[in-house]
User: Which sequence fits this backbone?
């Protein structure tokens, strides 16, 4: 009788025994792998979101610059002696960086404004697009302002249409009229990828609407 009770007690102890050390280690290992995978996926997603946000911001910045240039070129004005449109073809490290100077109408100042777009290499080796502008009339109390528009560009190319051909230079001091059309191309790096934006503008000041 006592032997049966002892056997029954041993069976009950065995039935209520916990996990073995190997089972605990296996469980911890699996849990560690799962947490590592979740951690890696989480931070990869954060980096992807950050890259995507930076890409959107850079593209919006480039489109804003292109819209500003296009708006001013559409309103460019050459009629009197002190108004002008001058386009020069330049290169920086085999990259096309046009220099564009012209007179136009702007909401910032009454009357006509002188505008200049040009690019230079900065101290860190990146090419930045700049804009300078000011009133055409010296008697106005306005300063010549300079803005850095967008950095780390690959190309800022301006071409004008003349007799069915796109050319890279123009000077109204030699040809006292505006070109038929103006094409602006801006190329820049975003997350080690090259993006190119291009827009063609047709000056409309002094031309018939239809």
Assistant:
């Amino acid at each position: 009788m006592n032997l049966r009770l002892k056997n029954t007690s041993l069976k009950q102890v065995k039935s209520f025994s916990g996990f073995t050390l190997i089972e605990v280690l296996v469980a911890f290992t699996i849990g560690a792998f799962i947490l590592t995978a979740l951690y890696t996926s989480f931070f990869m997603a954060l980096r992807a979101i950050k890259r995507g946000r930076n890409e959107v911001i850079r593209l919006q910045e480039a489109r804003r610059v292109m819209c500003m240039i296009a708006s001013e070129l559409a309103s460019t004005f050459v009629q009197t002696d002190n108004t002008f449109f001058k386009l020069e073809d330049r290169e920086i490290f085999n990259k096309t960086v046009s220099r564009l100077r012209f007179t136009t109408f702007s909401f910032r100042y009454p009357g006509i404004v002188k505008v200049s777009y040009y690019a230079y290499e900065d101290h860190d080796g990146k090419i930045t697009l700049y804009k300078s502008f000011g009133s055409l009339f010296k008697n106005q109390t306005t300063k010549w302002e300079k803005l850095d528009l967008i950095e780390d560009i690959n190309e800022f190319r301006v071409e004008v249409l003349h007799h069915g051909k796109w050319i890279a230079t123009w000077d109204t001091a030699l040809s006292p009229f505006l070109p038929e059309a103006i094409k602006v191309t801006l190329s820049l790096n975003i997350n080690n990828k090259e993006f190119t934006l291009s827009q063609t503008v047709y000056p409309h000041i002094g031309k018939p609407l239809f």
